[in-house]
Amino acid sequence: MNEIIVGMGEALWDCLPEGKKIGGAPANFAYHVSQFGFNSRVVSAVGDDPLGDEILEVFAEKHLHAEIARVEYPTGTVQVTLDQVGVPQYEIKENVAWDNIPFTDSLRDLALRTRAVCFGSLAQRNVVSRATINRFLDAMPDTGNELKIFDINLRQNFYTREVLCDSMSRCNILKINDEELVTISRIFGYPGIDLQDKCWILLAKYNLKMLILTCGTNGSYVFTPGVVSFQETPKVKVADTVGAGDSFTATFTAAILRGLPVPEAHKLAVEVSAYVCTQSGAMPVLPQAILDRLK
Q1: Helix (H) or strand (E) holding 214
Q2: Domain assignment of residue 249, given as a range
Q3: How many helices and strands (H and E) does the chain possess?
Q4: Burial zone of 115 (CB within 10 Å; 0-12 exposed, 13-18 middle, 19+ buried)
């Protein structure tokens, strides 16, 4: 059985006032999946420049397997600045390496061996990477056991109704937060309906296996046809929330692939994301007691 789990999309540096940190949901997802013993890959592109070299060095240090193209565009960066009251503002540089991920024979071979893939909307802002993501999805096996997870991840104005609709049609698991659901509802014309009803509409419209709705401190839901799981958000001392959502998605995916029922997979995902919130950075090492839950 194909057991490779892929995080596909942006690889970049968040340039913060205190220095730069590696960023991008695909790497966070792939890293946490690998902690549970799965053979994971992060798929992206970096420039042939020092920032690209550093990204590959970080992945190697974390023993994170990567399918990273070197392309003739600069490695992606996000300039993070704080306004007068300390609220971060983001400038995601455009026409960078991860906007131009090429579809190669190596990627096609990887797709044929992939059991689950997680992708988002940000990496589809450019036609090149969008086409590569879609070709990868199309090349995956179609036994009915594969997971194609669309973690919407709306950023700035880097999305269109067409891309969202196409991606929801191609995925079988949709992950969305409450703020994104409001935006999606406005785009697709579902105003005035409560959040749960909107989720049932999307689940049915796109024939999804599952829809994951996260609501910050107000808990999270997993909708499956006819059944819904709810978990409260644990109260923890937060160091930062960077990568917590990606760790949730990775843990839930790993648990489902290990055969856990949805409520148990959901519970473990919530516990892991809460733990990540107590640690600094997006890729902390998870406690052995948590990892043992999926042995």
Answers
A1: strand 210-214
A2: 4-294
A3: 10, 13
A4: buried
pLDDT (average), residues 56-61? 95
3-state helix, strand, coil in the chain (%, to 5): 40, 25, 35
pLDDT tens digits, residue range 181-207?
999 988 888 777 788 899 999 999 999
CATH number at residue 82: 3.40.1190.20
Give the count of domains, the chain.
1
- The CB density around residue 248, as the number of other CB atoms within 10 Å, is 26
CB neighbours of 248 closer than 8 A, spacing ≥ 6? 212, 214, 220, 269, 270, 272, 273
Span 110-139, average pLDDT: 97
Query: Whole-model pTM?
Result: 0.94
Would you state the structure tokens that stand for residue 137, as one six-digit string? 């999805």
- Residue 211 has a pLDDT of 98
Q: Which residue has the higher pLDDT, 276 or 226?
A: 276
How many Å apart are CA 282 and CA 32, to the nearest integer?
9
CA distance 229 to 231: 7
Q: Is the separation of the CB atoms in 182 and 213 below 8 Å? A: no
pLDDT > 80? residue 174: yes
Place of tokens 């049932």: 200
Write the DSSP string, 237-280.
Answer: --S--TTHHHHHHHHHHHHHHTT--HHHHHHHHHHHHHHHHTSS
Residue 141 pLDDT = 94
Report the C-alpha gap between 78 and 93 in whole angstroms: 6
Q: Give the Cβ contact number of residue 104 at 10 Å.
A: 12
Task: Report whether pLDDT(88) > 70.
Answer: no
Position 226 confidence tier, pLDDT thresholds 50, 70, 90:
confident
What is d(CA 222, CA 267) in angstroms, rounded to the nearest whole number?
10
Tokens 């992950």, residue? Answer: 175
